[in-house]
Amino acid sequence: MTRSAIPTPMAAEASEITIEKSKSDLSSIEAIIGSKERLGMLADDIIAHYEDRQYVLTGKAMIVCMTRRIAINLYKIILEKRPEWKNKIKVV
Fold first, then answer.
1. How far is the C-alpha of 84 from the C-alpha of 31, rounded, in Å?
2. Cα 16 to chain center, whole Å?
């Protein structure tokens, strides 16, 4: 029997109602984490951190977000604040 074929206790107990509640909870969390105000503050912190350390350290950095949508929104906000970074940052 393959590992993916072994039923887990969580999967066995999951009902349609539980699954829908979980989706709803994740949607609420994403709305809070991805709010424009929070992403603006996060962008300010990322920019300040980079600008403070750019002459001390060399290299690259990676920003990981909860969802693609949040990543794209954060990218846009950073570029609004630092348009000259257009060739420095990318969304993958």
1. 29
2. 27
The pTM (predicted TM-score) of the whole model is 0.73
CA–CA dist 11, 15 (Å, integer): 9
pLDDT confidence of residue 66: 92
Neighbours of 55 (CB within 10 A): 7
Amino acid letter, 76: K
Among residues 92, 50, 44, the alpha carbon closest in space to that of 71 is found at 92
Cα–Cα distances in angstroms (integers) from residue 22 to residues 7, 19, 58, 78, 91, in the given order: 19, 5, 42, 31, 28
